[in-house]
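Good morning C.,

I know you're traveling, so I'll keep this short. The sequence:
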Amino acid sequence: MDQHLRVELDGSTRNRRLDHVLCEHLPEWSRTRVQSLIKAGHVRLGGTTVKKPGLVILEPGLLEVELLEERQEVAPELAAGLRIVYEDAHLLVVNKPAGVLTHTNSPTGEQGVAELLAERYGPFPSLSDEGERRAGVAHRLDRDTSGLLVLGRSVAALERLKEMFAEREVEKVYLALCHGVARFDSEWIEAELGRTEKARDKISVVPPGEGRAASTFYQVLERHNATTYMEVRPKTGRTHQVRVHMAHAGLPLVGDEVYKPRGRALTALPAGAPRLGRHALHAARLTFPHPIEGHVLSFEAPLPADMQVLLDFVRKDLAGTAQ
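The tokens, ready to paste straight into the viewer:
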């Protein structure tokens, strides 16, 4: 059920950003979720709908917010460590641990997220051009990438979800720990991706006109002695895009044995660093319109324990060298 928040703003909010003020009144909400709510037109200031999170408040007035009930913790954990983040009649959002397939693609019949969830929820819909093997799957995460994954529970929802991912209507934010210290605070990586005759089993950056356009933006969160912690926002959704683009930029993911550069040494992790056992990439946030009802949904998945332990270690190493 929807709820409403009404706050009479006083002079203390003058010359402050709308999203900053609203975050103070919604302490359990992330900044991203608050900004999405504003952009979707669910906030009124002085009786006027505002859609700019960065709007500067100039005068006191009544702030009215329609709080959409977006999250629903359904079950703490399913098979293989899957956690349900949200469910309704049209879709499921799950937090996938590293090491689990999105859907079965193994000749041994290893189950993926789609098959494990079907055991609980029953069969998922499939689109005519894909067949049962990818039933319910709106997009994919690599086996060793952890984080948020969306499945459609009706044909209409699945079709719309896949369309939104293809048309870049979904805001995707990954967290990555990379070898090397980034030179720039942020950067766009524009490089076509495809397969080459020399490496048919891998995705590579290829010359213009020989692959599919791919675009990735990264923003540095922290620099350490030998690593960089960053947000990565892929605007396209090519296979292995983040992994390949970051390696191409000279900042390969920690733990990525497939796409680590050949012929040159990686910046070594500090002595005694815990071994991750997979590439350091986590699908941390997703924001998109509900495929049927249209209101904005925004979800977050906390950094998993293995990445957090390694991140804490390199932070401690940095602090030690600074003393």
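Safe travels,
E.
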